[in-house]
Amino acid sequence: MLRLYFLISLMCLVRSDTDETCPSFTKLSFHSAVVGTGLNVKLMLYTRENPTCAQAINSTVLGNLNVTKKTIFTVHGFRPTGSPPVWMEDLVEGLLSVDDMNVIVVDWNQGATTVIYNHASRKTRKVAIVLKEFIDQMLAEGASLDDIYMIGVSLGAHVAGFVGKMYNGQLGRITGLDPAGPLFNGRPPEDRLDPGDAQFVDVIHSDIDALGYREPLGNIDFYPNGGLDQPGCPKTIFGGMQYFKCDHQRSVYLYLSSLRENCTITAYPCDSYRDYRNGKCVNCGISQTESCPLLGYYADNWKGYLRERDPPMTKAFFDTAEEKPFCVYHYFVDIITWNKNIRRGSITIKLRDKAGNTTESKINHEPTTFQKYHQVSLLARFNQDLDKVAAISLVFSTGSVIGPRYKLRILRMKLRSLAHPERPQLCRYDLVLMENVETVFQPILCPELQM
Protein backbone atom coordinates (compact mmCIF):
# COMPACT_ATOMS: atom_id res chain seq x y z
CA MET A 1 0.00 0.00 0.00
CA LEU A 2 2.84 2.37 0.88
CA ARG A 3 4.49 1.47 -2.41
CA LEU A 4 1.29 2.29 -4.33
CA TYR A 5 1.02 5.65 -2.57
CA PHE A 6 4.63 6.42 -3.48
CA LEU A 7 3.95 5.62 -7.16
CA ILE A 8 0.85 7.85 -7.22
CA SER A 9 2.80 10.68 -5.58
CA LEU A 10 5.59 10.26 -8.13
CA MET A 11 3.09 10.40 -11.00
CA CYS A 12 1.65 13.63 -9.61
CA LEU A 13 5.12 15.13 -9.42
CA VAL A 14 5.82 14.14 -13.02
CA ARG A 15 2.50 15.65 -14.13
CA SER A 16 3.31 18.82 -12.24
CA ASP A 17 6.67 19.02 -13.98
CA THR A 18 4.94 18.53 -17.32
CA ASP A 19 2.59 21.40 -16.57
CA GLU A 20 5.59 23.59 -15.91
CA THR A 21 6.90 22.91 -19.43
CA CYS A 22 4.21 25.27 -20.74
CA PRO A 23 5.55 28.69 -19.74
CA SER A 24 3.02 31.47 -19.40
CA PHE A 25 3.20 35.22 -19.74
CA THR A 26 4.58 36.90 -16.63
CA LYS A 27 1.85 38.00 -14.22
CA LEU A 28 2.73 40.79 -11.83
CA SER A 29 0.75 42.72 -9.27
CA PHE A 30 -0.01 46.40 -8.95
CA HIS A 31 2.43 46.38 -6.05
CA SER A 32 5.17 45.44 -8.54
CA ALA A 33 4.14 48.38 -10.68
CA VAL A 34 4.43 50.74 -7.72
CA VAL A 35 7.88 49.57 -6.63
CA GLY A 36 9.06 49.08 -10.21
CA THR A 37 10.58 46.08 -11.97
CA GLY A 38 13.95 45.36 -13.49
CA LEU A 39 14.10 44.26 -17.10
CA ASN A 40 13.81 40.57 -17.92
CA VAL A 41 12.90 39.50 -21.46
CA LYS A 42 11.27 36.10 -21.97
CA LEU A 43 10.68 34.60 -25.40
CA MET A 44 7.87 32.08 -25.87
CA LEU A 45 7.48 30.15 -29.12
CA TYR A 46 4.18 28.93 -30.56
CA THR A 47 3.83 26.89 -33.75
CA ARG A 48 1.14 24.70 -35.26
CA GLU A 49 2.87 21.79 -33.50
CA ASN A 50 2.46 23.57 -30.13
CA PRO A 51 -0.32 26.15 -30.66
CA THR A 52 -1.37 26.42 -27.01
CA CYS A 53 1.65 25.24 -25.03
CA ALA A 54 4.55 27.64 -25.49
CA GLN A 55 8.20 26.70 -25.54
CA ALA A 56 10.64 28.88 -23.65
CA ILE A 57 13.42 29.76 -26.07
CA ASN A 58 16.52 31.92 -26.13
CA SER A 59 19.58 32.54 -28.28
CA THR A 60 21.03 29.14 -27.36
CA VAL A 61 17.81 27.08 -27.35
CA LEU A 62 15.58 27.55 -30.44
CA GLY A 63 13.13 24.77 -29.61
CA ASN A 64 10.62 23.95 -32.38
CA LEU A 65 11.55 27.08 -34.33
CA ASN A 66 11.90 26.25 -38.03
CA VAL A 67 14.17 28.92 -39.51
CA THR A 68 12.85 28.24 -43.03
CA LYS A 69 9.39 29.55 -42.11
CA LYS A 70 8.10 33.06 -41.45
CA THR A 71 8.72 34.18 -37.87
CA ILE A 72 6.51 36.79 -36.23
CA PHE A 73 7.55 38.54 -33.01
CA THR A 74 4.71 40.14 -31.00
CA VAL A 75 5.92 42.89 -28.66
CA HIS A 76 3.64 44.45 -26.07
CA GLY A 77 3.95 47.89 -24.52
CA PHE A 78 3.60 49.70 -21.20
CA ARG A 79 1.95 47.59 -18.45
CA PRO A 80 0.94 49.94 -15.61
CA THR A 81 -0.84 47.21 -13.59
CA GLY A 82 1.39 44.19 -14.28
CA SER A 83 -1.37 42.10 -15.87
CA PRO A 84 -0.78 40.18 -19.14
CA PRO A 85 -2.25 41.72 -22.33
CA VAL A 86 -5.82 40.46 -22.73
CA TRP A 87 -5.41 40.16 -26.50
CA MET A 88 -2.19 38.11 -26.64
CA GLU A 89 -3.73 34.63 -26.81
CA ASP A 90 -6.16 35.69 -29.54
CA LEU A 91 -3.32 37.21 -31.55
CA VAL A 92 -1.24 34.01 -31.36
CA GLU A 93 -4.24 31.85 -32.27
CA GLY A 94 -5.22 34.14 -35.15
CA LEU A 95 -1.73 34.26 -36.66
CA LEU A 96 -1.34 30.49 -36.58
CA SER A 97 -4.76 30.09 -38.18
CA VAL A 98 -3.75 32.01 -41.32
CA ASP A 99 -0.27 30.60 -41.92
CA ASP A 100 2.16 27.88 -40.85
CA MET A 101 4.71 30.02 -39.05
CA ASN A 102 6.66 30.65 -35.87
CA VAL A 103 5.00 33.07 -33.46
CA ILE A 104 7.27 34.39 -30.71
CA VAL A 105 5.67 36.26 -27.83
CA VAL A 106 8.14 38.78 -26.43
CA ASP A 107 7.35 39.04 -22.72
CA TRP A 108 9.10 42.02 -21.15
CA ASN A 109 6.46 42.54 -18.49
CA GLN A 110 9.31 42.72 -16.01
CA GLY A 111 10.47 46.10 -17.19
CA ALA A 112 7.22 47.32 -18.72
CA THR A 113 5.39 47.01 -15.41
CA THR A 114 5.67 50.34 -13.61
CA VAL A 115 3.40 53.25 -12.84
CA ILE A 116 6.09 55.60 -14.14
CA TYR A 117 5.78 55.54 -17.92
CA ASN A 118 9.21 56.96 -18.74
CA HIS A 119 10.85 54.14 -16.75
CA ALA A 120 9.28 51.66 -19.18
CA SER A 121 10.02 53.75 -22.27
CA ARG A 122 13.72 53.92 -21.37
CA LYS A 123 13.92 50.11 -21.52
CA THR A 124 12.73 49.80 -25.13
CA ARG A 125 16.24 49.95 -26.61
CA LYS A 126 17.44 47.28 -24.17
CA VAL A 127 14.58 44.99 -25.25
CA ALA A 128 15.60 45.56 -28.85
CA ILE A 129 19.19 44.50 -28.08
CA VAL A 130 17.95 41.21 -26.58
CA LEU A 131 15.86 40.56 -29.68
CA LYS A 132 18.78 41.30 -31.98
CA GLU A 133 20.91 38.72 -30.16
CA PHE A 134 18.18 36.14 -30.74
CA ILE A 135 17.68 37.06 -34.40
CA ASP A 136 21.45 36.89 -34.95
CA GLN A 137 21.32 33.29 -33.79
CA MET A 138 18.40 32.60 -36.13
CA LEU A 139 20.41 34.01 -39.02
CA ALA A 140 23.36 31.85 -38.07
CA GLU A 141 21.05 28.81 -38.31
CA GLY A 142 19.96 29.80 -41.82
CA ALA A 143 17.01 32.17 -41.31
CA SER A 144 16.39 35.09 -43.68
CA LEU A 145 15.64 38.67 -42.64
CA ASP A 146 12.98 38.65 -45.36
CA ASP A 147 10.96 36.17 -43.29
CA ILE A 148 11.08 38.14 -40.03
CA TYR A 149 7.98 40.17 -39.18
CA MET A 150 7.56 42.19 -35.98
CA ILE A 151 4.21 43.33 -34.59
CA GLY A 152 4.68 45.98 -31.91
CA VAL A 153 1.95 47.48 -29.75
CA SER A 154 2.39 50.99 -28.30
CA LEU A 155 5.94 51.04 -26.88
CA GLY A 156 6.44 47.69 -28.59
CA ALA A 157 6.14 49.41 -31.97
CA HIS A 158 9.22 51.50 -31.19
CA VAL A 159 11.03 48.38 -29.91
CA ALA A 160 10.38 46.85 -33.33
CA GLY A 161 11.71 50.00 -34.96
CA PHE A 162 14.92 49.86 -32.94
CA VAL A 163 15.44 46.23 -33.97
CA GLY A 164 14.87 47.17 -37.59
CA LYS A 165 17.47 49.94 -37.42
CA MET A 166 20.06 47.45 -36.21
CA TYR A 167 19.55 45.55 -39.46
CA ASN A 168 19.55 48.68 -41.62
CA GLY A 169 15.89 48.29 -42.54
CA GLN A 170 16.28 44.77 -43.96
CA LEU A 171 13.66 43.09 -41.74
CA GLY A 172 10.79 41.79 -43.83
CA ARG A 173 8.01 43.78 -42.16
CA ILE A 174 7.03 45.78 -39.09
CA THR A 175 3.47 46.51 -38.03
CA GLY A 176 2.99 49.26 -35.45
CA LEU A 177 -0.30 49.07 -33.56
CA ASP A 178 -0.96 52.58 -32.24
CA PRO A 179 2.72 53.35 -31.57
CA ALA A 180 3.23 55.21 -28.29
CA GLY A 181 3.09 58.99 -28.59
CA PRO A 182 4.18 60.36 -25.18
CA LEU A 183 7.97 60.90 -25.11
CA PHE A 184 8.15 59.91 -28.81
CA ASN A 185 6.09 62.59 -30.55
CA GLY A 186 8.39 64.91 -32.48
CA ARG A 187 11.46 62.75 -31.98
CA PRO A 188 13.89 62.19 -34.89
CA PRO A 189 13.69 58.90 -36.86
CA GLU A 190 16.57 57.32 -34.95
CA ASP A 191 14.56 57.62 -31.71
CA ARG A 192 11.29 56.03 -32.86
CA LEU A 193 9.67 53.78 -35.45
CA ASP A 194 10.35 54.96 -39.00
CA PRO A 195 9.38 53.83 -42.53
CA GLY A 196 13.00 52.85 -43.20
CA ASP A 197 13.11 50.31 -40.35
CA ALA A 198 11.89 47.41 -42.51
CA GLN A 199 11.17 46.51 -46.11
CA PHE A 200 7.53 47.30 -45.36
CA VAL A 201 6.13 49.22 -42.39
CA ASP A 202 2.38 49.54 -41.79
CA VAL A 203 0.89 51.41 -38.86
CA ILE A 204 -2.59 51.69 -37.34
CA HIS A 205 -3.21 54.95 -35.45
CA SER A 206 -6.28 54.71 -33.20
CA ASP A 207 -5.61 57.22 -30.40
CA ILE A 208 -3.65 60.13 -31.87
CA ASP A 209 -5.02 62.68 -29.38
CA ALA A 210 -3.85 60.82 -26.26
CA LEU A 211 -1.65 57.72 -25.99
CA GLY A 212 -0.80 57.22 -29.67
CA TYR A 213 1.53 58.85 -32.19
CA ARG A 214 -0.12 61.42 -34.45
CA GLU A 215 2.13 61.68 -37.50
CA PRO A 216 2.81 58.98 -40.14
CA LEU A 217 5.45 56.42 -39.18
CA GLY A 218 5.20 53.85 -41.94
CA ASN A 219 4.93 53.17 -45.64
CA ILE A 220 1.19 53.10 -45.10
CA ASP A 221 -0.48 54.65 -42.07
CA PHE A 222 -4.08 53.70 -41.34
CA TYR A 223 -6.31 56.11 -39.42
CA PRO A 224 -9.55 54.39 -38.35
CA ASN A 225 -12.29 56.97 -37.77
CA GLY A 226 -9.67 59.65 -38.34
CA GLY A 227 -7.44 58.16 -35.62
CA LEU A 228 -9.40 59.85 -32.85
CA ASP A 229 -12.39 58.65 -30.83
CA GLN A 230 -13.28 55.07 -31.72
CA PRO A 231 -16.96 54.05 -31.92
CA GLY A 232 -18.06 51.99 -28.95
CA CYS A 233 -15.41 53.40 -26.60
CA PRO A 234 -16.45 55.43 -23.52
CA LYS A 235 -16.65 59.18 -24.12
CA THR A 236 -16.32 60.23 -20.48
CA ILE A 237 -14.21 59.30 -17.47
CA PHE A 238 -17.23 57.47 -16.04
CA GLY A 239 -16.27 54.63 -18.37
CA GLY A 240 -13.49 53.73 -15.92
CA MET A 241 -10.20 52.30 -17.19
CA GLN A 242 -11.77 51.69 -20.61
CA TYR A 243 -11.98 55.45 -21.06
CA PHE A 244 -8.18 55.61 -20.97
CA LYS A 245 -7.24 52.51 -22.95
CA CYS A 246 -10.14 51.59 -25.27
CA ASP A 247 -9.13 53.87 -28.17
CA HIS A 248 -5.49 52.84 -27.80
CA GLN A 249 -6.29 49.10 -27.79
CA ARG A 250 -8.70 49.32 -30.71
CA SER A 251 -5.73 49.12 -33.09
CA VAL A 252 -5.05 45.59 -31.82
CA TYR A 253 -8.64 44.45 -32.21
CA LEU A 254 -8.82 45.88 -35.71
CA TYR A 255 -5.71 43.89 -36.60
CA LEU A 256 -7.26 40.79 -35.04
CA SER A 257 -10.34 41.21 -37.22
CA SER A 258 -8.14 40.85 -40.31
CA LEU A 259 -7.10 37.39 -39.07
CA ARG A 260 -10.32 35.76 -38.03
CA GLU A 261 -13.46 37.69 -38.85
CA ASN A 262 -15.66 37.24 -41.90
CA CYS A 263 -15.17 40.74 -43.22
CA THR A 264 -12.34 42.56 -44.90
CA ILE A 265 -11.61 46.10 -43.74
CA THR A 266 -10.78 48.25 -46.74
CA ALA A 267 -9.07 51.61 -46.33
CA TYR A 268 -8.88 54.54 -48.71
CA PRO A 269 -5.63 56.45 -49.39
CA CYS A 270 -6.38 60.12 -48.87
CA ASP A 271 -4.82 63.38 -47.78
CA SER A 272 -7.27 63.87 -44.91
CA TYR A 273 -10.13 62.24 -43.05
CA ARG A 274 -12.42 65.03 -44.20
CA ASP A 275 -11.69 64.33 -47.86
CA TYR A 276 -12.35 60.62 -47.27
CA ARG A 277 -15.72 61.31 -45.63
CA ASN A 278 -16.64 63.63 -48.47
CA GLY A 279 -16.14 60.79 -50.92
CA LYS A 280 -13.08 62.23 -52.64
CA CYS A 281 -10.82 59.20 -52.15
CA VAL A 282 -12.62 56.02 -53.12
CA ASN A 283 -10.54 55.05 -56.17
CA CYS A 284 -7.16 53.49 -55.43
CA GLY A 285 -4.26 53.49 -57.83
CA ILE A 286 -3.25 55.82 -60.61
CA SER A 287 -5.34 53.96 -63.18
CA GLN A 288 -8.30 53.81 -60.77
CA THR A 289 -8.24 50.04 -61.15
CA GLU A 290 -5.84 49.22 -58.30
CA SER A 291 -7.67 47.59 -55.40
CA CYS A 292 -7.65 49.59 -52.19
CA PRO A 293 -5.33 48.56 -49.33
CA LEU A 294 -6.56 46.12 -46.72
CA LEU A 295 -6.07 46.73 -43.03
CA GLY A 296 -4.04 44.37 -40.87
CA TYR A 297 -2.29 41.14 -41.78
CA TYR A 298 -2.79 41.54 -45.53
CA ALA A 299 -1.74 45.19 -45.72
CA ASP A 300 1.49 44.15 -47.41
CA ASN A 301 -0.48 43.32 -50.56
CA TRP A 302 0.08 47.01 -51.31
CA LYS A 303 3.84 46.77 -50.85
CA GLY A 304 4.63 46.55 -54.55
CA TYR A 305 2.36 49.45 -55.47
CA LEU A 306 3.84 51.70 -52.79
CA ARG A 307 7.35 51.01 -54.06
CA GLU A 308 6.37 52.82 -57.26
CA ARG A 309 5.57 56.00 -55.34
CA ASP A 310 8.08 58.69 -54.41
CA PRO A 311 8.24 58.72 -51.46
CA PRO A 312 6.80 55.20 -50.91
CA MET A 313 4.33 56.41 -48.28
CA THR A 314 0.61 57.08 -47.99
CA LYS A 315 -2.09 57.70 -45.40
CA ALA A 316 -5.33 55.72 -45.55
CA PHE A 317 -8.64 56.40 -43.82
CA PHE A 318 -11.73 54.37 -43.07
CA ASP A 319 -14.61 54.17 -40.61
CA THR A 320 -15.58 51.27 -38.38
CA ALA A 321 -18.62 49.96 -36.58
CA GLU A 322 -18.86 49.98 -32.78
CA GLU A 323 -18.56 46.23 -32.33
CA LYS A 324 -16.63 43.30 -33.75
CA PRO A 325 -15.90 42.62 -36.55
CA PHE A 326 -15.93 46.46 -36.97
CA CYS A 327 -16.55 46.38 -40.74
CA VAL A 328 -18.57 49.03 -42.50
CA TYR A 329 -19.79 48.80 -46.08
CA HIS A 330 -19.42 51.80 -48.34
CA TYR A 331 -21.99 53.02 -50.84
CA PHE A 332 -22.28 56.15 -52.92
CA VAL A 333 -25.61 57.96 -52.84
CA ASP A 334 -25.76 60.17 -55.95
CA ILE A 335 -28.45 62.84 -55.81
CA ILE A 336 -29.50 65.35 -58.46
CA THR A 337 -31.94 67.99 -57.20
CA TRP A 338 -34.15 70.52 -58.99
CA ASN A 339 -34.88 73.03 -56.22
CA LYS A 340 -34.87 76.59 -57.49
CA ASN A 341 -32.98 77.71 -54.40
CA ILE A 342 -29.86 76.17 -52.88
CA ARG A 343 -30.54 73.80 -49.99
CA ARG A 344 -28.00 72.85 -47.33
CA GLY A 345 -28.47 69.93 -44.99
CA SER A 346 -27.84 66.27 -44.26
CA ILE A 347 -29.24 62.99 -45.51
CA THR A 348 -30.10 59.84 -43.56
CA ILE A 349 -30.54 56.74 -45.68
CA LYS A 350 -31.95 53.41 -44.52
CA LEU A 351 -31.91 50.14 -46.46
CA ARG A 352 -34.19 47.13 -45.97
CA ASP A 353 -34.07 43.70 -47.60
CA LYS A 354 -36.92 41.24 -48.22
CA ALA A 355 -36.25 39.49 -44.90
CA GLY A 356 -36.80 42.73 -43.00
CA ASN A 357 -33.16 43.36 -42.07
CA THR A 358 -32.36 47.07 -41.95
CA THR A 359 -29.21 49.18 -41.83
CA GLU A 360 -28.86 52.95 -41.60
CA SER A 361 -26.31 55.61 -42.46
CA LYS A 362 -26.41 59.20 -41.27
CA ILE A 363 -24.42 61.41 -43.62
CA ASN A 364 -24.24 64.39 -41.30
CA HIS A 365 -20.56 65.09 -40.62
CA GLU A 366 -20.94 68.43 -42.39
CA PRO A 367 -23.81 70.12 -44.31
CA THR A 368 -24.16 69.16 -47.96
CA THR A 369 -24.98 71.81 -50.56
CA PHE A 370 -27.68 70.84 -53.06
CA GLN A 371 -27.89 72.96 -56.22
CA LYS A 372 -30.34 72.71 -59.11
CA TYR A 373 -29.31 70.04 -61.65
CA HIS A 374 -25.97 69.43 -59.90
CA GLN A 375 -25.10 65.88 -58.85
CA VAL A 376 -23.94 65.42 -55.27
CA SER A 377 -22.19 62.14 -54.42
CA LEU A 378 -22.43 61.26 -50.74
CA LEU A 379 -20.38 58.49 -49.12
CA ALA A 380 -22.70 56.35 -46.99
CA ARG A 381 -21.38 53.83 -44.46
CA PHE A 382 -23.52 50.91 -43.30
CA ASN A 383 -22.85 48.35 -40.58
CA GLN A 384 -24.52 45.58 -42.60
CA ASP A 385 -24.17 44.62 -46.23
CA LEU A 386 -27.62 43.80 -47.60
CA ASP A 387 -27.27 41.83 -50.82
CA LYS A 388 -30.72 42.57 -52.25
CA VAL A 389 -32.26 45.88 -51.22
CA ALA A 390 -36.06 45.83 -51.30
CA ALA A 391 -36.78 49.27 -49.88
CA ILE A 392 -34.95 52.55 -49.27
CA SER A 393 -35.89 55.47 -47.05
CA LEU A 394 -34.47 58.98 -47.06
CA VAL A 395 -34.67 61.79 -44.52
CA PHE A 396 -33.52 65.33 -45.32
CA SER A 397 -32.69 67.71 -42.47
CA THR A 398 -31.32 71.23 -42.21
CA GLY A 399 -30.93 70.92 -38.45
CA SER A 400 -34.18 72.70 -37.74
CA VAL A 401 -36.26 71.23 -34.92
CA ILE A 402 -39.40 73.23 -35.68
CA GLY A 403 -41.57 71.19 -38.03
CA PRO A 404 -40.92 70.52 -41.74
CA ARG A 405 -39.83 73.90 -43.11
CA TYR A 406 -38.07 72.93 -46.32
CA LYS A 407 -38.43 70.47 -49.17
CA LEU A 408 -35.73 68.76 -51.16
CA ARG A 409 -36.88 67.96 -54.67
CA ILE A 410 -34.90 65.02 -56.07
CA LEU A 411 -34.75 64.52 -59.80
CA ARG A 412 -32.77 61.28 -59.47
CA MET A 413 -31.26 59.24 -56.63
CA LYS A 414 -28.80 56.44 -57.33
CA LEU A 415 -27.32 53.91 -54.88
CA ARG A 416 -24.11 52.08 -55.84
CA SER A 417 -21.93 49.72 -53.78
CA LEU A 418 -18.20 50.37 -53.54
CA ALA A 419 -17.44 47.00 -51.97
CA HIS A 420 -19.35 45.19 -54.74
CA PRO A 421 -19.27 47.34 -57.88
CA GLU A 422 -20.62 44.40 -59.90
CA ARG A 423 -24.01 44.69 -58.17
CA PRO A 424 -26.81 46.43 -60.08
CA GLN A 425 -27.15 50.13 -59.23
CA LEU A 426 -30.50 51.17 -57.78
CA CYS A 427 -32.34 54.32 -58.79
CA ARG A 428 -35.45 56.36 -58.01
CA TYR A 429 -36.80 59.41 -59.81
CA ASP A 430 -38.96 62.43 -58.94
CA LEU A 431 -39.01 62.42 -55.15
CA VAL A 432 -40.00 65.25 -52.83
CA LEU A 433 -38.53 65.03 -49.32
CA MET A 434 -40.24 67.00 -46.59
CA GLU A 435 -37.71 68.06 -43.97
CA ASN A 436 -37.39 65.61 -41.06
CA VAL A 437 -40.01 63.30 -42.59
CA GLU A 438 -39.00 59.77 -43.61
CA THR A 439 -39.85 58.93 -47.21
CA VAL A 440 -39.91 55.20 -48.02
CA PHE A 441 -39.88 53.84 -51.57
CA GLN A 442 -38.98 50.80 -53.66
CA PRO A 443 -35.95 51.34 -55.88
CA ILE A 444 -35.70 50.26 -59.50
CA LEU A 445 -32.70 49.14 -61.50
CA CYS A 446 -30.81 52.03 -63.08
CA PRO A 447 -30.48 51.99 -66.88
CA GLU A 448 -27.37 49.99 -67.77
CA LEU A 449 -25.81 52.72 -69.87
CA GLN A 450 -26.17 55.29 -67.09
CA MET A 451 -22.94 56.14 -65.33
From TrEMBL:
Domain Lipase: 36-326
Example of a GO MF term: metal ion binding
Signal peptide positions (record): 1-18
InterPro entries: AB_hydrolase_fold, Lipase, Lipase_LIPH, Lipase_N, TAG_lipase
Membrane topology, from the record: Peripheral membrane protein
Pfam family name, one: Lipase
Job of this protein: Hydrolyzes specifically phosphatidic acid (PA) to produce 2-acyl lysophosphatidic acid (LPA; a potent bioactive lipid mediator) and fatty acid. Does not hydrolyze other phospholipids, like phosphatidylserine (PS), phosphatidylcholine (PC) and phosphatidylethanolamine (PE) or triacylglycerol (TG).
Originating species: Delphinapterus leucas
GO BP terms, alphabetized: lipid catabolic process; phosphatidic acid biosynthetic process
Record keywords: Calcium, Cell membrane, Disulfide bond, Glycoprotein, Hydrolase, Lipid degradation, Lipid metabolism, Membrane, Metal-binding, Secreted, Signal
Name of the featured protein: Lipase member H isoform X1
Residue positions of the active site: S154, D178, H248
Keyword Calcium: yes
Similarity annotation: Belongs to the AB hydrolase superfamily. Lipase family.
GO CC aspect terms: extracellular space; plasma membrane
Main location: membrane
Residue positions binding Ca(2+): R192, D194, D197
